[in-house]
User: Which sequence fits this backbone?
């Protein structure tokens, strides 16, 4: 698409038809009735896109973002809730809060603290996850994967409630470090299993460490 | 058509690449989504790949990535689009498409050598030629197929698609559908051919070198 990109600044409860946009600054509630393609977005409040959203550079969010299509962005950062129907694709993600999508989530670098629900594959070059709530993905794959509980959630665990857990069918990576995870299969060159895990099968090449408070049914060195 | 599949585990072992690389290439869309075939095995879910295609692709990526960035590579590998221009004499000499098909479905300029063939045009010829050689369709139908591809293939903009060729009571019909898709016919229809255009493109590129 080529054409003129106009900057957009809106405050209050607003709506836009979307389309080709430049820098977008939103405060309040904004609905976009169509696909939108922006150079960057800075949103405080709520953004609701009926269609797909593409952001060239940065999507900065404090609040809520709902996209009924796919989300594609250079960088995604902020705090709040992201809900995308069809899948997320981006270079870097640094986000506190909840991430939901029915599709795949593909990122070069992901740093997420909070919770997520991903219907398909979570694919990241490097993934650092700090869990505050329940996390669920069908499959997780990538280079370096590190899954932990946040300190606050760990504290909650001491008090007696079960605390957040990650559930996934398959986790695969070169270096995989998991804590408080329930998974069917974990595959990796180096696999480190911390406490609170229940894993059906681990396939590893070089190294495997398992915390004694975790339950692994099968261990296979390839 | 059953293709030989290779599991992800075997693939990594065979090619010596890591999970990180494989997933990165997938992210960069160097490896098409529909090559990832999920199957349940007795050990749970496993991912498989069409063996020939993936091995050729990985070989190509490994060889090219020294000289090109991954993004540049992505442009080169996009399945149905390929920068190429082949002249008429080359097409016949190298036996990429049979003479009969070339002569029947080329424009005058192409036959005289003043115009060259784009990849998309080649793909049309190649697909028609392939089906003719397999004896699946007659010359008359080949014309309809060429017309269908010419008209509708560009609409997919390089996205993966499939060619469906069906007959009912001797009447033939062609369809192009985005892949992967499920298609169901009524009982009287005989699906003669179901062909992945991505695969055809891959084969054509192999021939073009």
Assistant:
């Amino acid at each position: 698409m080529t054409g003129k990109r106009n900057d957009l600044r809106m405050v209050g409860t607003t709506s836009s038809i979307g389309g080709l946009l430049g820098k977008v600054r939103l405060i309040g509630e904004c609905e976009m009735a169509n696909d939108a393609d922006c150079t960057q977005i800075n949103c405080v409040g709520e953004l609701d896109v009926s269609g797909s959203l593409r952001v060239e550079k940065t999507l900065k969010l404090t609040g809520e973002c709902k996209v009924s299509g796919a989300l594609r962005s250079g960088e995604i950062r902020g705090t709040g809730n992201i809900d995308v129907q069809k899948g997320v694709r981006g270079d870097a993600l640094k986000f506190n809060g909840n991430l939901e999508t029915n599709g795949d989530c593909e990122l070069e670098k992901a740093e997420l603290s909070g919770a997520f629900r991903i219907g398909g594959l979570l694919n990241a070059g490097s993934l650092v996850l700090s869990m505050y709530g329940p996390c669920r993905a069908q499959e997780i794959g990538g280079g370096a994967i590190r899954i932990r509980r946040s300190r606050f959630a760990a504290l909650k665990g001491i008090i007696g409630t079960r605390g957040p857990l990650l559930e996934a069918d398959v986790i695969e990576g070169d270096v995989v470090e998991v804590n408080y995870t329930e998974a069917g299969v974990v595959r990796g060159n180096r696999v480190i299993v911390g406490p609170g895990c229940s894993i059906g099968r681990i396939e590893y090449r070089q190294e495997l460490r398992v915390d004694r408070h975790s339950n692994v049914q099968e261990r296979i060195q390839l | 058509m059953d293709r030989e599949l290779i599991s992800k585990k075997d693939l990594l072992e065979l090619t010596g690449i890591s999970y990180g690389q494989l997933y990165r290439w997938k992210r960069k869309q160097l490896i098409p989504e529909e090559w990832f075939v999920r199957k349940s095995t007795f050990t749970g879910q496993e991912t498989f790949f069409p063996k020939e295609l993936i091995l050729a692709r990985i070989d190509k990526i490994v060889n090219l990535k020294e000289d090109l960035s991954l993004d540049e590579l992505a442009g080169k590998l996009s399945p149905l689009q390929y920068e190429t221009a082949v002249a008429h004499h080359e097409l016949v000499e190298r036996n990429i498409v049979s003479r009969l098909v070339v002569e029947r479905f080329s424009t005058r300029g192409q036959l005289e050598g003043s115009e060259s063939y784009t990849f998309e045009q080649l793909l049309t010829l190649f697909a028609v030629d392939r089906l003719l050689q397999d004896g699946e369709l007659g010359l008359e139908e080949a014309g309809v197929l060429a017309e269908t591809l010419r008209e509708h293939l560009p609409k997919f903009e390089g996205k993966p698609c499939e060619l469906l060729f069906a007959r009912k009571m001797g009447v033939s019909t062609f369809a192009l559908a985005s892949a992967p898709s499920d298609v169901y016919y009524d009982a009287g229809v005989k699906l003669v051919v179901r062909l992945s255009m991505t695969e055809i493109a891959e084969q054509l590129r192999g021939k073009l070198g």
